[in-house]
Amino acid sequence: MLYVSAIIAMEAYLLDNFLSAVNSDKVIFRKYIETTEHFRRQKIQLSNIFKESEGIDKRGRAYLTKLLWHRLSDVAKLYRDTLGIHFPKDMTQLLDAVQIRHDFVHRNGRTQTVKKLR
Known about the structure:
The chain has helices spanning 2-24, 26-35, 37-40, 49-54, 56-66, 72-83, 92-107.
């Protein structure tokens, strides 16, 4: 449980820190919206532009709260593209820790590979 909690604390920190940055600065929020692939793919009809712009804050925050913050490749891209913060190139140990947390939470501590019984 402590192991899982440590990873959850990391996820909470990453989300809270990012939300704090985008909530406190409209320039950062705009950069977040403009550089995030989820929003770049969306098409808006010109007749809906005002309605869409009025709800952009809510939609932007909703996307962040639904994001899986243990998917560090997605999180690293958000931090890099929005805040100019680069995560380490080699996050192997951290990614392994996230996988172990996943095994604890979803598989009662077992890995996906099942050992043969003798």
